Amino acid sequence: MTSKRYKKLPEKTSELSSETVEKLIPVIKKNCTTKFDESVDLSFQINNKQKKNEINIRTIVNLPGGTGKKVKVAVVCEESKEAEAKDAGADIIGGDDFIEKIKSGEINFEKLICTPAMMIKLSKLGKVLGPKGLMPNPKLGSVTDNLKTAISDAKSGQVEIRNDKDGNIGVSIGKKSFSDDKLIKNFNAIVETLEKEKSNNTVKGDLIKSTFITSTMGVSYKLKLGKSI
């Protein structure tokens, strides 16, 4: 059943012409009529089906304006690095015992960081962590000896950009309560990252087929990108 709140929102917005993020953010905020601080979300459809290969994007972006979310960070490391992890603000820290807890299904964190020395043991839990997108990856900066930087990035506004099998990417650029300028800066950071991904992959034509912007409980609008990606 459609709520009275939702019925008051604009209809058929996806059929409108695309607009720039600067014009649409105030509109999206106006549609945030719930009592909680809704997220402002992007949805990209990429041209992942290529003749010679399939494009798979998986990278991270440090949003300059943050995410507005509290991230619970866990660290698997050797005992000699536990103090460093604690000082850096890790919420859960452990070694072999912690790995056994994860193995048994005790997963109460949103981000997992691991030192290279412990990754050999943790890598055996691929079937547990992989489907949840929690397996640490050196390319994403989550397998490292520099725990201070990794934990700080994870907590301050780091998001992962990853397409599914159908070429869809969903990512949040912040909250309704953010200033327009902060949301725009986060948006630009994501677009710049996708531009780099296009140059790193052999893409025929544009990488992005379409882009939409919406809020958690709002309606979506076609988004015009500043340049061809």
Summarize the structure.
By secondary structure, the chain is an alpha/beta fold.
Q: Could you characterize the architecture of this molecule?
A:
The structure is a single chain. By secondary structure, the chain is of the alpha/beta class. It folds into two domains: 4-67 and 158-222, 2-Layer Sandwich (Ribulose 1,5 Bisphosphate Carboxylase/Oxygenase), CATH 3.30.190.20; 73-156, Rossmann fold, CATH 3.40.50. Helices cover 31% and strands 21% of the residues. A four-stranded antiparallel β-sheet has the order 7-1-8-9, covered by helices on one side. Strands 4-3-5 form a three-stranded parallel β-sheet, sandwiched between helices. Helix 2 (21-30) crosses helix 8. The radius of gyration is 20 Å and the shape is globular.
Identify the notable features of this structure and list them briefly.
2 domains; single chain; 229 residues; Rossmann fold; Ribulose 1,5 Bisphosphate Carboxylase/Oxygenase; three-stranded parallel sheet
Supply Rg: 20 Å
CATH topology name of the largest domain, in short, is Ribulose 1,5 Bisphosphate Carboxylase/Oxygenase
CATH superfamily caption of the largest domain: Ribosomal protein L1/L10, rRNA-binding domain
Strand content: 15-25%
How many helices in DSSP terms? 8
- Strand pairing plus helix content: what structural class? alpha/beta
SSE topology string: HHEEEHEHEHHHEEHEE
Question: For the residues shown, what is the average pLDDT?
Answer: 91
Q: Rough shape? A: globular
Strand order of the largest sheet: 7-1-8-9
- Mind summarizing the main beta sheet? 4 strands, antiparallel
DSSP summary, beta strand count = 9
